[in-house]
Amino acid sequence: MLRNNLRRVRRTAIGGIVLLAACLSFGQAPNTCLDCHSALPEPQGVTQEKFAQDIHAQKGLTCASCHGGDPTSMDMTVAMSKAKGWKGHIDKKQVPALCGSCHSDPNFMKQYNPGLRTDQLSQYHTSMHGKQLAAGNSKVAVCTDCHSVHDIKPPSDQHSTVYPLNVAKTCSKCHADANYMKPFGIATNQYANYTTSVHYDALTKGGDLSAPTCVTCHGNHGATPPGVDKVQNVCATCHVFQAQMYGKSTHFKAFQDKNLPGCVVCHSNHAIHPPTDAMLDTGKQGVCMSCHKPGDKCDVARVNILSSLTKLDQTITSANQILHLAESSGMEVSAALGAQDQARDALTKARVTIHTYQPSLVAAEVQNGMKIANANFKAGQDAMVERNHRRIGLGICLIAIAFALFGLWLLIKKIEA
Amino acid sequence: MLKKIIDWLDERLHLDGLLEPFRHKTVPTHKLSCWYFFGGITLFLFLIQLLTGILLLLYYKPGANEAFESVQYIVTRVQFGWLIRSIHSWSANLMVFTAVAHMFSVLFLKAYRKPRELTWITGMLLLFLVMGFGFSGYLLPWNQLAFFATTVGTQMAGQVPLIGQPILIFLRGGPEVTGATLTRFFGFHVAVLPGLVFVLIAIHLFFVQRQGMSVPPKVEKEWEQNPSLRREMKFFPNFALREMMAWYVAIGALGVLAALFPWDLGVKADPFGAAAAGIKPEWYFLFMYQTLKFIPAHIGFIDGEVLGIMGCGVVALLWMLLPFFDRERAGGKKSWMTGIGIFALVYVIVFTVYGYVAK
Questions:
Q1: Which CATH architecture describes the domain B24-357?
Q2: Where are the domains of chain B?
Q3: Mutate which of A412, A414, A415, A416 to disrupt the B interface (most B C-beta within 10 Å)?
Q4: Tell me: the pLDDT tens digits for B226-253?
Q5: Where are the domains of chain A?
Q6: What is the rounded CA–CA span in Å between residue A32 and residue A64?
Q7: Could you report the per-residue pLDDT of B172-225, keeping only the tens digit for each?
Q8: Dihedral sign, Cα of residue B251, residue B254, residue B256, residue B262
Q9: What ipTM was reported for this prediction?
């Protein structure tokens, strides 16, 4: 009797455990691939931890989604049978098409990320990478070279290879490798130059994730060097005013005639440094005299522009110094200090106007800035004069008080005598 | 001519009889007499506050959109506006200092003893009102520092159990510090507090006049043993002239501070802006602020901040009732009150300095 009861309890318990396991696994497609591949070395090896970080795995896709086969079968011959659609290793040349089979299908992609573009493959075909691949060169980048494989993260993930802060490093894996790039005959100093640039500083030190990286100028999936005559269009996406002014300037036609790459002629490309007035000078940083001759009409204009900009800069600095001195003396000069921003804006505007290469337009902006900076300087001077008046007044008052105290003391002495 | 006018008035108002008590009023003279001046200096600074405050009222405009600009106008455009504003701010601070010095001098000279308990209580109430003046006046320029200091200060008042939230709403004129708080504080600063202060000053001075100046117990004992040592001076003109000298010194100090260190205006309050790093209350609230910072977040089941604020309130109340705890001890033993006074003074100084240098 007791033995029968024990058997019944045991059966019920086993049945319960099986039922619980079935419930827990319900809805999850088994992925037996990782059981073996997590133990294999690279490149076949993919651990559970690595694959779990992949955005595709997180969205419910499995190895079979790309490689085919039957991941539900524990039998390797069944799981990796051609009959089950197993493709095995994906050849590099087939990677773009494979990724594109989903990513170019708007209806399919809508299920996961309705905002994601679906033109990556068509863009890729227009890129230098895509064209070279189509021509049979498999050394060029395909999707997995930039996005990694088996642990692909969305670009917004800080650990993603295409996160803004990581893009340049990702491109440099190939483009900074002299041996790898040798057959292509292109330079490999772009990354080294880029890390010295104002754009890199804005991105990494300024924390501005919208600052330009490689893909901002070259495109990402359609990555191609802008043609010599198209550089201006690339820069214009951010530097609108400069590009507009340059487009109407005499330099535009002159550069086009000589097939010079617009902005790059003066500012360089990957190693773009913060522009300074020294670029107008004849020193090491000067750029004008590499084309112009000393004493020519343009050189005279250059000297005038440089001297007026320097004068405005110095006036703003002087105004700043005297205003801060007045402020540290307790004078109320906040209005003039606030107006200093307007003077600095005028200086910036004058510097931007250089792209018109018309000295009269630059002079007009400088004049505007000088008017404000001079007024601010005068406000600082007035404040300092007022400060000195106050101190003189204080001295007179203290002398008067000292006399009054002395008089009171004499009066007390007289009364108490 | 002047004598004629005085005689004319005397004939009608009998001024002679009114001034008679002052003619006979005397001030004890001993080595600690200098402390008698602090009450008078505090009163003088209050009168300066009154005068400069009225002058500021000619141009000041209460309101979130106008207050800062009006103060800016006063210090930049109005003739001697900078001087009036700076003197108002500096004398407010000096007044708190001299009031506190006056309080401690009364404590250490044991001038609070019977029959002067009520003089002490009115003095303490005046000190609280002076601090109220400081707190309400601090917001009036509507600058960033004042905005956040008021936010923190009223928040602390809101921590009082049961009545905290209604007090907070009453002080702020709503759940947040806004223009409504500014106009409210302006009202407190220029109408409510001055009214209360006038009444209390009158009572305080009446008590002092009726009871005369207190003499420290030690000096009193010496005088009792040897009456020939007793020294006094007439209030008019001897003491009054000396007090006037102290007032001149106070004016000189105010002039130096106002001319060399004009009170900063800061930047206009921006309710959506970030609080300045290391924001602290005015120096006379620093010791309390620093004390609250030391109290743990929770003590048992009670919120630390609530406990701290309640503690400050209880200590202030006990401090006000201090004369009633001081009893003459048999055998001429020293009272423990001096010890408490020294401890309080050292505590306030140490925590104020620590609060000032702490980040």
A1: Up-down Bundle (1.20)
A2: 24-357
A3: A412
A4: 999 889 999 888 999 999 999 999 999 9
A5: 43-89, 297-416
A6: 10
A7: 999 999 999 999 999 999 999 999 999 999 999 999 988 988 999 889 899 999
A8: negative
A9: 0.85
